[in-house]
Amino acid sequence: MFLISDLCGLADNYLEPDQVREIYRAYQFGAEAHEGQRRASGEPYIQHPIQVAKILAEMRLDYQSIVAAILHDVIEDTDTAKPQIAKQFGKEVAELVDGVSKLTQISFESRAEAQAEYFRKMLMAMARDIRVILVKLADRLHNMRTLSALPMDKRRRIARETLEIYAPIAHRLGLNNIRLELEDLGFRTLHPMRYRILSAEVKKARGHRKQVVRKIETSMKRRLRQEELNARVEGREKHLYSLYRKMRGKRLSFAEVHDVYAFRITVDTADACYRALGIMHGLYKPVPGKFKDYVALPKPNGYQSLHTVLFGPYGTPMEVQIRTEDMHAVAEAGIAAHWLYKSSDSATSTAQKRARQWLKELLEMQKQSGDSIEFLENVKVDLFPKEVYVFTPAGDIMALPRGATPVDLAYAVHTDVGNTCIAAKTDGRYTPLSTPLVTGQNVEIVTAPWGRPSANWLNFVVTGKARSNIRNYLKHLRTGEAIELGQRLLTQALASESLSMEEVPAKRIETLLDEYHLQSIDELLEEIGLGKRIAPLVALRLLPNRASGIKEVVGRNDKQPLYIKGSEGMVVNFGKCCHPIPGDNVIGFLSAGRGIVIHTSSCRNLVDFSDKPEKWVDVVWQPNIEGEFPVEIRVVVKDQKGVLATVAAAISELGANIENVGLENRDGANSTLTFLLAVSDRIHLAKIIRRVRGIAQVSKIARAHS
User: Which residues are catalytic?
Assistant: First the structure.
């Protein structure tokens, strides 16, 4: 059992005596708060916080972090409140403890939502103070070490969460030692059989491999000494979980995974890294295409190292990593290297800067996300980066996840750049915004003041920042359109009662907003525009006498129609069943969440809405309407070579864009072609039908109806 005396002894190696006394005082406070509580294993609960604190003390973190680790469960699991901790140990410690605590006072609809909201809260606290996540990762690590006392279903859930979220966060922050242990423990719990089999195979092969590793190590050391390069060489076996992922990802058997050998060469300077690389390539042949320079182009978490794969003495590929001692400190401890090594060198400061930048992006992402689950999904995207490195016109290097597009780059530069992006040049040539970027490309983002995000971008962007910003823009765009439509619908409804919005007393509007539990008139107009409230009924509530009823509203014939221009955006939709176009007799139907759906008056689907007359809206096309509208025509043609091209050419001649074509064989002699066209109005459509009807191979043409 690890005792408080052991923890104080560990802390005494690097902390001041008065700080060690604070740690002991925190233990007394925590032990009293957790008095009588036991873990699932049966041991006193206080053992868990002490073990968490031990992990942080081994990382040589400051005393506030260790105090927070000892107290990290007192808010959640005892009657202790945050102000008590602030009074006893200071505001800084209280904020750390609060950041790690779960949201126990709020009820959620599902466990997924609760977990996502807790995760959002923790990451926001982490953005204020990076030590929050260090305490949480230590907490998770000790929980993973002691999972065996829990039921199997709970063990599997915690292990999956660890592999999906906490191990990737540790990797993102460069905490390599913690990541490796979390992955191994998660793998062992989630896939116990696979873990046992793979572990046994590795042990079986280890005897022979130890000799091979020693032989390669010796030859490397000898060659480095001959070249008078001061270096440390370590041979090691590959991490079990990384072996498993490689086997699964590339569908390999254990026998087919050859680069189980890995060697690390540690030197004094960055220049020596490249010298050592040349020496290794001279000693063993390199595998083409397997060299990566993370010294010149560090990973987003600050990791720096040269990676190469060599053909070993038995023709077996082996991975070699070459780095300096400072780079090694960052590789193993990441942002914690700041405390662990008290180093102010560029490598550790780079890790700190990159971590801060990621946290800054998390803050921005959470502001744009609609809910906690969406935020968590966006963060997960960023937690599994396979980087590509591209250059901006200014020569800056930008690291992005593999598969990233120019739109992802635009948002990585700045939100405003992403929101006004209209095109991109890669290596001087215009390329589609959906084109995945490749390492080494020079990418220029072209912007314009009138540029706006497109909903289509969500189909190809890969970064959480881009996705959350695009969704946020579209959400606000739809809100603005809904408010505008709601204004028009309510104005129309009031006009039928010989009243205008300006004539409605402010007090009556306030009363109605209170009844509907809304904060502002804009919220009311948005709900009307989205079809959640019916404009004539809202208008009745605003009348001075409020004497009318629903039946009277529905039965009135003097209501003014709503003019439709076709450019209202996402809150006015056109029925795909009948494809109404200007010139058609149309009618609108209020659909909750979609606004108004426009149908032709002859649409057969209107029968489905006959029992909801209060949701009908009288609509007419605005005069001199401009734009293109989809419409479907069916053409019966004789089966002859080139007939499709002939019909398509005739349609194109009359300026109609063909959006889709369908072909159906009716019999051996005839086929039916279905065209989805973009036309301006009924007159335009009539010209097309007349022109196509004149083609010799066409036996019948008609507009498609629902």
Answer: 76-77
